[in-house]
Design brief:
The structure is a single chain. The chain is an all-alpha fold and 352 residues long. 74% of the residues lie in helices and 0% in strands. The longest helix has 48 residues. The termini are far apart.
C-alpha cells in the first residue's frame, strides 16, 4: 500500500491541529456569548459597581467545564507517563499557565471590570488587553489541545480528530485560517475594525453586539497565538523563533499605533463615553488618553515578553544544535582512533 505524499500528511496534521485549536476557540466563544446575560449597557458610578455587577452563570459554567476536562486530561496523561516510566507528561508550569489563562478569561468577562466597561473607556481597554494578549497565549502554553482530547471519552477522540475531513471544505478553511500571515491579518484587522467609532459605540450600547465583539477578539487571538506558541515542549508551530519574533514585533507595533492615536487625539473619539466617564470623576478625553496608554504600554509589554521568550528558545535551539554537531564530530573521530590503537597494540589478552 502506497503512502500518501508528504505534503498531504503535513496538511492533514495541520488541519487536525487547527481543529483542536478551534475547540478551544469554541469554548471561548461560549464564554463570550454568555456576557449578553450579565453585561449592562447602563452607566454605573464607582460606588454602585458591585451592586450593578452580576456574575455570568454561562461564563462560570464554561470555565468549570473547561477546568474539569483539563484536569481529567492531565490525570490520564500523567497516569500514562507513570505507567510507561516517563513521569508526568504535562509539567506544573504548563498547568499553571492554562489555569491562569482560564482565570483571566473569567475575570475579563464576568467580574466588575466587565460592568465598568459601559461607563469608562480605560476599563474597556484593560478588558480588551486581557482578551487578546494575556489569556490566549497562557491557555495555549498549557497544551490544551492534547490535554482536552485526553479528557473527553475515548470514543470521541478519533471522531473529533477526523472531523475536518468529514465536513466538506472545513479542513481547507482551517488550514487557511492558521496560516501565519492570514492569522496575523485577521487578528489585527479585527482589533482595528472594532475600534471604528460608530461600531465601537454600537457594541457598548448593544449587549449582543458586545458579546460578538468579545468572541471575535478571543477567537482571532487564539488563531494568531497558535502560530507563535509551540504546540509542545519539543515541537514548533507554524513559525519558528526567528519569524515568531518578527510577527510578535509587528503585532506589538500595530497595537502601539492604535494606542498612540487614542493617546494624542485632541477630541473624544467615542461619543458614547461623553457624560459617562464623568461619573468616575474623569473627563472623556482624559479617559481616552489613559486607555491609549494602556493599549500602548502594558499591552506592548506583553509582546516584548513574548519576543524575549522566543529569543531564549532560539538561543537554546542553536546551543542544542551546536552540542549535537560536536557530539557527532567526536564520535566520528573516536572510531579511527580506536581502530588505530587496536592495530598498534594488537588484541587484548588475559594474563594468567
Amino acid at each position: 500500500m502506497a503512502l500518501p505524499p508528504a505534503s498531504h500528511l503535513h496538511t492533514h496534521a495541520r488541519a487536525i491541529r487547527a481543529l483542536r485549536g478551534c475547540a478551544i476557540a469554541w469554548l471561548a466563544l461560549a464564554a463570550a456569548t454568555g456576557v449578553a446575560q450579565a453585561h449592562t449597557t447602563d452607566a454605573v458610578a464607582p460606588d454602585r459597581l458591585l451592586d450593578a455587577w452580576k456574575a455570568d452563570p454561562w461564563v462560570l459554567i464554561a470555565a468549570l467545564v473547561a477546568g474539569w476536562l483539563y484536569a481529567r486530561g492531565i490525570g490520564h496523561l500523567n497516569e500514562m507517563g507513570t505507567r510507561t516510566g516517563r513521569g508526568p507528561l504535562v509539567g506544573p508550569a504548563r498547568i499553571a499557565a492554562f489555569s491562569a489563562g482560564l482565570l483571566t478569561l473569567v475575570l475579563a468577562l464576568s467580574s466588575p471590570l466587565d460592568t465598568a466597561t459601559a461607563t469608562i473607556f480605560s476599563a474597556h481597554m484593560i478588558q480588551h488587553v486581557l482578551l487578546v494578549a494575556v489569556a490566549p497565549p497562557l491557555i495555549l502554553l498549557g497544551l490544551p489541545t492534547t490535554v482536552f482530547l485526553n479528557g473527553v471519552p475515548r470514543g470521541w477522540r478519533r471522531p473529533l480528530a477526523t472531523l475536518p475531513h468529514r465536513i466538506p471544505g472545513l479542513a481547507v478553511l482551517l488550514g487557511v485560517l492558521t496560516m501565519p500571515a492570514v492569522a496575523w491579518l485577521v487578528h489585527a484587522g479585527t482589533l482595528w475594525a472594532w475600534h471604528i467609532p460608530w461600531l465601537y459605540d454600537a457594541a457598548v450600547q448593544n449587549e449582543r453586539l458586545h458579546a460578538v465583539e468579545h468572541a471575535t477578539f478571543v477567537i482571532t487571538a487564539l488563531l494568531y497565538w497558535w502560530t507563535i506558541v509551540p504546540a509542545g515542549a519539543h515541537t514548533r508551530n507554524a513559525l519558528g523563533p526567528a519569524m515568531g519574533i518578527l510577527s510578535v514585533f509587528a503585532m506589538g507595533m500595530q497595537s502601539a499605533a492604535l494606542g498612540i492615536i487614542l493617546t494624542f487625539w485632541s477630541t473624544p473619539i467615542y461619543p458614547v463615553y461623553v457624560g459617562r466617564s464623568e461619573l468616575w470623576h474623569i473627563s472623556a478625553l482624559s479617559d481616552q488618553r489613559l486607555a491609549g496608554l494602556i493599549m500602548w504600554i502594558p499591552a506592548g509589554s506583553v509582546y516584548v515578553v513574548a519576543a524575549l521568550m522566543l529569543l531564549r528558545s532560539w538561543f537554546q535551539e542553536e546551543r542544542e544544535d551546536e552540542e549535537g554537531q560536536e557530539r557527532i564530530a567526536l564520535e566520528a573521530l573516536a572510531v579511527p582512533i580506536e581502530r588505530q590503537e587496536h592495530h598498534q597494540l594488537g588484541p587484548v589478552t588475559t594474563v594468567p
